[in-house]
From TrEMBL:
It comes from the Eukaryota. GO terms for molecular function: histone H3K4 monomethyltransferase activity. It is found in: Cytoplasm, Cytosol; Nucleus. It comes from Opisthocomus hoazin. Coiled coil: none annotated. This is SET domain-containing protein 4. InterPro entries: Rubisco_LSMT_subst-bd, Rubisco_LSMT_subst-bd_sf, SET_dom, SET_dom_sf, SET_MeTrfase, SETD3_SETD6_MTase, SETD4_SET.
Length: 438
């Protein structure tokens, strides 16, 4: 029987879509061939994982066989890891040991990354450096006008992050200068701010947690970082579970899956139950339909709907501050959080109800009027945040048209704001139903 043209086209389309879902295998690319060869020389056994490009997450790892619960995903020998031990046995080790006051483990690793990147073809770690990102999308790398489009609590943290990296750079300049004997050119040109920002982002976004014993040549900050070539190509998903740890017997860092994964699918790991604001701040990406995501309500937004003439307003604010009820007030997929409702209940107490503030913090119902007013104010805040988010999304779409160079960064903030909008609209729906019920 002759196949119809329509059926053949449909089949081709399905196949095309399938290749998109599965990802495009990239293991034939020269940088990955060199990386695998280099890792093999350090004792890494070839696994079932292949580098691939995925339409939704970009670069990641796919499996060439179906994975079952409790299967070993990857085992990376200690020799492949970059730790402070690696740094001390490199050319900068003796300078770190001599330097007083001692540098932090973080600065030691940043220094190593800058030195090895600068060494280029002469670096023993070149195959790894060739696959590291050239740029990052953490807030510290975003342009000022893009940072201004972030939700207020995240904007504040992004500004703090920038200040931290700037301070780290300024306080390390003298140490960087001490490395001059290692270089023909001036250390100021090698260890510039951009180089440190890149190294800091590499560590912040890509290290695995691995506790090391305290060394005298380092400051007292915890030494818990390890860079893991190849393993760090695994992307995060909030919907999977894994077990990850350094195995003292095999002297390897191992990841075991607690979820199933079909053949040719992307293999995910989970960084923890992080919301999108934290993922963007620490890792420079946003997870779509993240079950842990929340929209944060700032104290300024909270107070917008309460009369400044309320005589007990200052006392109420003082109580909320003392009992840590002005932070982490959120809307989630299941509506307003208990903390947000409790803070609003306390602010909604009438003059005759104020004496019962302790009961409010314990979750007791004070009066029908207080419950109703709390719901009304919560709904108003939710609608205010919806409007604010929609306004920002409009700004982003206008900027995307006029600022070609910021397109990628704007798309990231847009993804965050779109997730926020979904959460707020779901919360508005829940509040509407609650209002109808009462």
């Amino acid at each position: 029987m002759k196949k119809s043209k329509g059926r053949t086209a449909r089949k081709r389309r399905r196949k095309h879509l399938q290749s998109f879902t599965d990802g495009v295998n990239c293991s034939h690319k020269l940088e990955y061939i060199k990386l695998k060869k280099w890792l093999k020389g350090r004792g890494f056994e070839d696994s079932n994982l292949r580098p691939a490009e995925f339409w939704d997450t970009g670069r990641g790892l796919m499996t060439t066989k179906a994975l079952q619960v409790r299967d070993l995903i990857i085992s990376l020998p200690e020799k492949c890891l970059v730790t402070t031990g690696t740094v001390l046995s490199s050319c900068v080790g003796e300078y770190i040991v001599k330097w007083k006051p001692p540098v932090s483990p973080l600065i030691a690793l940043c220094t190593f990354l800058i030195v090895e990147k600068h060494a280029g073809a002469k670096s023993l770690w070149k195959p790894y450096f060739d696959v590291l990102p050239k740029t990052y999308t953490c807030p510290v790398c975003l342009e000022h006008e893009v940072v201004n489009l972030l939700p207020e609590p995240l904007r504040k943290k992004a500004q703090e992050q920038r200040a931290t990296v700037r301070e780290l750079y300024m306080s390390s300049k003298a140490f960087f200068s001490s490395l001059q004997p290692l270089f023909a050119e001036n250390t100021g040109t090698i260890f510039n701010y951009n180089a440190l920002e890149w190294a800091w982002c590499t560590i912040n976004t890509r290290t695995i947690y691995m506790k090391h014993s305290q060394r005298e040549c380092f400051s007292l900050e915890p030494d818990v970082y390890a860079l893991a070539p190849y393993l760090d190509l695994l992307n995060h998903s909030p919907n999977v579970q894994v077990k990850a740890a350094f195995n003292e017997q095999t002297r390897s860092y191992e990841i075991w899956t607690n979820s199933q994964c079909k053949k040719y699918e992307q293999v995910f790991i989970c960084y923890g139950p992080h919301d999108n604001q934290r993922l963007l701040l620490e890792d420079g990406f946003v997870a779509v339909d993240n079950p842990h995501s929340s929209v944060y309500v700032s104290s300024d937004t909270l107070l917008r709907y309460f009369p400044p003439l309320d005589k007990q307003r200052n006392a109420k604010l003082s109580i909320l501050k003392d009992h840590d009820f002005l932070e982490n007030l959120t809307f989630g997929w299941d509506g307003p959080s208990w903390r947000l409702l409790t803070a609003l209940k306390l602010l909604s107490l009438g003059a005759d109800e104020f004496a019962f503030w302790k009961r409010t913090l314990l979750g007791d119902v004070i009066s029908a009027r207080n419950e109703q007013q709390t719901l009304n104010v919560t709904a108003k805040i939710c609608h205010f945040l919806i409007k604010e988010t929609q306004h920002t999304l409009l700004q982003i779409s206008q900027l995307k048209r006029s600022k070609e160079n910021l397109k990628n960064h704007l798309a990231l903030v847009e993804a965050l704001r779109l997730e926020d909008l979904k959460i707020l609209q779901k919360s508005a729906e829940i509040l509407c139903n609650l209002n109808m019920a009462t």
